[in-house]
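Pair request: fold both.
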Amino acid sequence: MNNGTLVWGPGTGNLYTLTPTGANLTLVASGANGINLRSSFNDGNRLFLGSSSNNAIKYVDNGNFGAIQTANIPSQGVTAVVTRFFKAANVLYAVVNAGQEKLFKSTDNGANWTEQNTTWDNDGNTDDLGAAF
């Protein structure tokens, strides 16, 4: 982030920024806008925040934490964790662990996400792809 480092209060859902000098913490999200932060990804002017509660992906444009948006991602259950974001060929991806790793793709800058096929044909048997993140 241009304005400092993102800090999360474990177990609280509170999200803070830390000034570049490390002098001050600023509460930027709590309550309904809070998030059990597990991963983040900065894509230019949009910061993505991945949660450990029912696949919540939130995003912030231009550092405006007063207008945190929640993305549309299919529910995987309350134990699902957004473990990683990445970008390939200008397409955003999120890896979600819901007992197994699942891959989600967004083609509209992270507003909506769709699950991608993560199986392969192993000599006639269909196996899930595994991942270690």
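--- second member of the pair ---
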Amino acid sequence: WRFTTSTELDLESGGISRTESTHHFTKVEADFNDDGKIDFACNAISTSFSGEGLIVRLSDGEEFKWLILNEIDRGAHHPNVGLDMGIDLVKPGKILTACGKGYSECGIDEPEELDLKVPSILYFKLESASSIFYWDRSTESFAHIPISV
């Protein structure tokens, strides 16, 4: 994985200007797992396939490890494509999920509302669907839930 270059980053993609964010909606920092250490999340370009991913440098209290939360592989027929997805920071608090907003029926384990205790990652396609990656204390891992479709 590697960081994006300026040519891969379309600053006016999808009707929203990436210039509205100091990091162009490509990286955020916060304590995602509530261990007292600042973690780092970013959209990155794959060095092994034509695509991008959401990766996180997460502390376990002692060391940092890299996690891949999402990958988008566009296939060999789409080489050298730019970054489609954006990320932003979600502050702790109550957030309605996609099913809580009435976009779909809630699944068995899908809540209508999240009560976030720590900062989380908003993951979105500009002018399209969005979701949240949040730390689930019960599983000690990231969980993922749509908030719009």
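Observation on the second member. The longest strand covers residues 64-73.
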